[in-house]
Amino acid sequence: MSTDSTVVAFQHPDDVDDPLTSVLREGARRLLAEAIEAEAEAFLAAMKEERLADGRARFVRHGHGPERTIQTGIGAVPVKRAKVRDRGPDEAAGIAGERVTFTSAILPKWARRTKSLDALLPVLYLRGISSGDFQEALAALLGKDAPNLSPSVISRLKEDWQGEYERWKRRDLSARRYVYIWADGVYLQARMEDNAACMLVIVGATPEGKKELVGFQVGVRESAQSWHELLIDLKKHGLSVAPEIAVGDGAMGFWKALDEIFPSTRHQRCWVHKIANVLNKVPKSVQPNMLADLREVRDAPNRASAEVAIAVFQEKYGAKYPKAALCLAKDREPLLAFFDFPAEHWDHLRTANPIESVFATVRHRTVRTKGALSHDTARLMVFKLVMAAAKTWRRLKGENRLPMVIAGVKFTDGVAVTAAADQRAA
Question: How far is CA 209 from CA 45, 240, 279, in A?
Fold first, then answer.
């Protein structure tokens, strides 16, 4: 029976009436249920030839597990796990061996949240949210039914990340070969002590053109000793073949350590850092024209043109701005080393961007907040973010040319020159 009333019900502050989210969650629930059912049916179809001694099917459906809630990026989604029964082995049925267990790849047995949420936790940590505030933060994002993320749960997750990092550090590199490497020291002021931690990072390119995280650890500034320890650790774990060329900024610590551990590796100075260093030595009014001249050197079609552009630069600015001219001239060879490699790779070798682009995102997410984040915790958080980003790193252009570099083929202005052609040119 309906009654008239003048009482207006007010919405509770914690209740959000969002029909769109409700529709998305219901759709996600149905799709997930259908996918789990399809996965179980595919398993049964693959095992349909398996029979018991009396001819009955060995594998049959066995209902569902109890309903549980999976936390996703759109909130909590209820789901039931499909179960499959293996009716053998059974001595009475004449089948020997171990029972086969059906495990869903979509819905692991003990999963309570999607992997995307685990990837979100390092971001929240670096953003300045303390472990005790994770529950409140996720409740605002995912609703009041967000998973229980107490400080003890976060501590266990950090222990898992620490184990993952230690296994990664101990991995065997004896079968790995990196023809190019990029090195940089990244400083993050993210809930850390006043003295920012320096993350020493090395990214390598395999002969197939794939970029990988090779070395990663917290160092004392960018000292030669810190870089030496990192390179020695890589060599200890099997990285015995020296890279063809290393790309980095002007930090002397890295180059000194590199010459000690891999003396045959050539040096390539990062043009982004070098241009910034040169422009810092002249007034702002001069910088636009000087920047255009520096780009003439960097983007020259060959080494000869680059040498001419450097000579023009020295003539234009040497008298009035000697510090800028000297800053460019003193690193002439390491700035032009990329010309001795395939032309398809020049864009990659001119800069340490493979590292800068990854950590630019991390830097934007990290700000000074109250409280201090230890170097160890910061290392784990950044490691998780970098490993997630590594899956999307762009491969080198013209990667099929990399094996030629390994074979010691000589390149002139990016073009491979055979021994016979080289003799004819001489």
Answer: 40, 19, 33
How far is residue 216's CA from residue 213's CA, in Å, rounded to a whole number?
8
**Residue 256 is inside which H or E element, if any?**
helix 252-261
Q: Which two tokens stand for residue 292?
A: 């255009």
In angstroms, the Cα distances linking 195 to 190, 221, 365 are 11, 9, 19
Task: Give CA torsion, residues 360, 366, 372, 377, to 10 deg.
Answer: -50
pLDDT digits (tens, 9 = 90+) for 158-215: 787 788 888 998 999 998 899 999 998 877 654 444 455 578 889 999 888 888 999 9
Count other C-beta atoms under 10 Å from residue 167's C-beta. Answer: 9
Per-residue tokens: 238: 């099997």
Cα of 239 vs its chain's centroid, Å: 20
Taken in order 313, 317, 321, 322, the sign of the CA dihedral is positive
Name the residue among 412, 411, 361 with its Cα closest to residue 382: 361
Cβ density class 23-59: b for 16+ within 10 Å, e for less: ebbeebbeebbebbeebbeebeeebeeeebeeeeebb
What is 324-364 written as a DSSP string?
Answer: HHHHHHTTHHHHHGGGGS-GGGHHHHT--HHHHHHHHHHHH
Q: What is the pTM of this model?
A: 0.67
